[in-house]
């Protein structure tokens, strides 16, 4: 036997106790919601060792759960040697402080929002993404600073879930005023980034390309679908929030029409409002799309609730009225009877498998039909002296009839609405003139 035993350098997962409350207005069954919380904890690097649930008419103002459940949580924490207690709902600063006092150091008490912010902090790659996450984290921390500096200092030292806030800033040695100052700085930096994004967005709006955005619940397979459609290699993992930053790829529909497809951050139930607000510039890619593909995991038993959660976020960012097409992904691992049921409930949806490529051609055909539905039939008269508009017509539209006259060209053409608007000065009358 070797004198030197190998020593693992892999981080030891934190042990987490999950706590959920059943309330009258809960949209999800508590066990299903805790299943998702467990996946979030796993994504953040924690191992769930126990669950505690309670039915309440309303949360306890001091500890969120009742005193008996607090004692149960304390017993589980000490018996199972847990490192962190994660609540499935938001805790007020005072509730968090009271729970920390009851459970005792060094165990951490965090809520769902803190967990999601922590995951976003891990996965943000671009400067804009890191700024957006940092803004949301600072806004979350601000009301929790009073009397918590020693607690936060210990968290920063220990590391792990809930301790990666601030993106390297020395948050533990500043007061509320300095945190507010930092929030102001981040907002200014984000505004600069957003202005550059707006310039790019205006260029895309002016482009004749049909704009498609992928939106859906996290882990529904949006990135895999983007890869399948465009042949790209965007990161796609079986993890919640594997990708945060928007990715746009070009694609040509049958007939040669240009299209762009943008993959954005996945949605989730109880998505923190601070994150939705911070990511609004990124989510503007969805708001400005001509068509939203609402991607859902056909094999997930919570599919209907997930679609509802996606619709709520789309409404919140102002994209609720945008033309949309429901796409059920992962049909390769969905029972046939489930697919039949989905077909009856959602008769206009498209069912595909990004993994195997099944029915992708049908999806492309549907997108092409949606693009054509937004075209306008216009009658234009373009003088020969104005060559650029005629070139635009031929490159972006479907020319149905073209008549050359002494001073210009009469053309009946189907054009994307945005392009037709730019050529309003050349409209010569009703298309009926050609009938």
Task: Write a structural description.
It is built from 15 helices and 14 strands. By secondary structure, it is an alpha/beta fold. It has a 6-stranded mixed β-sheet, with helices on both faces. Strands 2-1-3-4 form a 4-stranded parallel β-sheet, sandwiched between helices. Strand 1, helix 1 (about 30-45) and strand 2 (about 45-55) form a beta-alpha-beta unit.
Provide the fold topology.
Layout: E1 14-22, H1 30-43, E2 46-55, H2 67-80, E3 84-87, H3 93-103, E4 108-111, H4 112-123, H5 127-141, H6 149-158, H7 176-206, E5 210-216, H8 222-230, E6 247-252, E7 258-263, H9 273-278, H10 280-287, E8 291-297, H11 303-316, E9 324-329, H12 336-345, E10 350-351, H13 360-373, E11 375-383, H14 387-396, E12 398-404, E13 408-416, H15 417-422, E14 427-429
Parallel strand pairs: 1-2, 1-3, 3-4, 5-7, 5-8, 8-9, 9-10
Antiparallel strand pairs: 6-7, 11-13, 11-14, 12-13
Strand order of the largest sheet: 6-7-5-8-9-10
The biggest sheet, with number of strands, parallel, antiparallel or mixed sense and barrel status, is:
6 strands, mixed
Give the strand tally.
14
Order of helices and strands: EHEHEHEHHHHEHEEHHEHEHEHEHEEHE
List the total number of helices.
15
Give the end-to-end Cα distance, rounded to a whole number of Å. 93 Å
Spans of at least 5 consecutive residues whose pLDDT stays below 50 are 147-153, 167-172, 430-435
What percent of the residues sit in helical stretches (DSSP H or I)? Answer: 40-55%
Helix-strand category: alpha/beta
Mean pLDDT: 84
Q: What fraction of residues sit in β-strands?
A: 15-25%
Overall geometry: elongated
Gyration radius from CA atoms, angstroms? 26 Å
């Amino acid at each position: 036997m070797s004198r030197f035993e190998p020593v693992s350098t892999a981080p030891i997962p934190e042990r987490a106790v999950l706590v959920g409350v059943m309330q009258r207005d809960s949209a999800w069954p508590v066990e299903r919601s805790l299943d998702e919380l467990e996946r979030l904890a796993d994504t953040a690097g924690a191992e769930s060792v126990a669950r505690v649930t309670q039915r309440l008419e309303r949360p306890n103002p001091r500890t969120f759960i009742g005193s008996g459940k607090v004692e149960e949580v304390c017993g589980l924490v000490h018996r199972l040697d847990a490192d962190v207690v994660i609540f499935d709902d938001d805790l007020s600063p005072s509730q968090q402080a009271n729970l920390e006092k009851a459970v005792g150091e060094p165990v951490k008490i965090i809520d769902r929002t803190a967990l999601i912010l922590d995951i976003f902090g891990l996965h943000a790659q671009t400067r804009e993404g890191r700024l957006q996450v940092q803004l949301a984290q600072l806004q979350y921390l601000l009301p929790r600073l009073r009397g918590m500096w020693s607690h936060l200092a210990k968290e920063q030292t220990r590391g792990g879930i809930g301790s990666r806030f601030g993106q390297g800033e020395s948050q533990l040695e500043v007061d509320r005023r300095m945190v507010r100052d930092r929030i102001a700085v981040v907002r200014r930096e984000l505004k600069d980034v957003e202005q550059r994004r707006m310039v790019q967005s205006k260029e895309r709006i002016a482009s004749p390309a049909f704009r498609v955005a992928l939106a859906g619940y996290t882990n529904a397979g949006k990135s895999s679908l983007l890869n399948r459609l465009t042949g790209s290699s965007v990161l796609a993992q079986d993890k919640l929030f594997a990708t945060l930053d928007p990715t746009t790829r070009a694609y040509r529909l049958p007939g040669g029409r240009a299209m762009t497809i943008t993959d954005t951050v996945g949605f989730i139930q109880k998505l923190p409002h601070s994150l939705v607000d911070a990511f609004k510039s990124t989510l503007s890619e969805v708001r400005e799309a001509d068509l939203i593909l609402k991607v859902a995991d056909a094999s997930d038993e919570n599919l209907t609730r997930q679609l509802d959660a996606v619709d709520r976020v789309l409404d919140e960012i102002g994209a609720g009225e945008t033309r949309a097409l429901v796409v059920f992904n992962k049909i390769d691992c969905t029972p046939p009877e489930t697919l039949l049921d989905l077909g009856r409930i959602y008769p206009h949806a498209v069912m595909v498998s990004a993994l195997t490529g099944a029915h992708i051609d049908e999806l492309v055909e549907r997108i092409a039909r949606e693009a054509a539905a937004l075209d306008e039939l216009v009658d234009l008269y373009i003088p020969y002296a104005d060559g650029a508009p005629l070139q635009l017509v031929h490159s972006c539209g479907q020319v149905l009839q073209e008549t050359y006259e002494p001073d210009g060209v009469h053309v009946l053409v189907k054009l994307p609405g945005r392009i037709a608007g730019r050529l309003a000065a050349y409209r010569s009358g009703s298309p009926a003139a050609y009938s």
